[in-house]
Design a protein that fits this description.
36% helix; alpha/beta; 253 residues; binds magnesium ion; binds adenosine-5'-triphosphate; Rossmann fold
Amino acid sequence: METQQIVLDPKITDIFQQQARPEPSVIAVGLSKVVSPRKGDSVTILSDVDFCAYPGQITAIVGPSGSGKSTLLYCLAGLETFTDGSVSLLGTPIKGMKPTKLTKFRRNHLGFVFQSYNLVASMSVEENIALPFTLRGARFPRKQAESMLDYFGLLKQRKTNVTELSGGEQQRVALARVLLASPDIIFADEPTGALDQENGRKVMGILRDIAQNPEKTVVLVTHSAEVAEKCDRVVEVRDGRISQASAQNEVTV
Ligand SMILES: Nc1ncnc2c1ncn2[C@@H]1O[C@H](COP(=O)(O)OP(=O)(O)OP(=O)(O)O)[C@@H](O)[C@H]1O
Ligand SMILES: [Mg+2]
């Protein structure tokens, strides 16, 4: 029997590709956070934020200092509570989840690189990056850890206590710790903030490699135009809201 080859009009394949866009792995709808630092006082940090991030992409959150970027990232990652709205991660709503269940969910699926690194001061570089594995009761991939430390120029310091490292070195340890655990979603708060240009590029290179995987999502906060340029989508926060311009005209690099 003769087979007939069908050649689709590129416009049609384009529609197929658009339809094949994956479901967002991070979705926030109407997210608001109001705090009362003093009795009778209330401060709105986030106001009616709609946000989503897709697997296979790096989404950048940009905006002026104090605009609410870190707070948004913390709320998305289930590390801070919010007043109104909803957040769902990998199809699972996190609001109202029991704390133990949320901790387990975070441990199994999420990685967070803190703006302040959050390393355990009494531990060495190697002990710090082994921590997520220890907590999960999983085997520590020593060989992979060594190549990761080597990539970040930290192999010689692997037995050094993290308090003896510079800010940039500590930031690289914090990144290595999350990257090695290879979570489904990586949240990173200014992951290149304390790094020189070369190390900043290395970090972005590795995050880009991760986002090549269609099942991995990266959401990062940055002040750097160079970093934002290397991301797939850029969302701007201003005064606790997603700026109109960025909502309507998402930057797709
Ligand atoms: N618990 C809190 N109580 C009162 N105000 C808070 C609280 N947490 C954050 N804020 C305020 O909310 C605003 C947003 O803070 P956030 O840390 O999210 O900003 P940011 O955009 O990450 O800034 P930066 O770029 O400097 O890191 C700031 O004005 C901050 O002082
Ligand atoms: Mg911040």
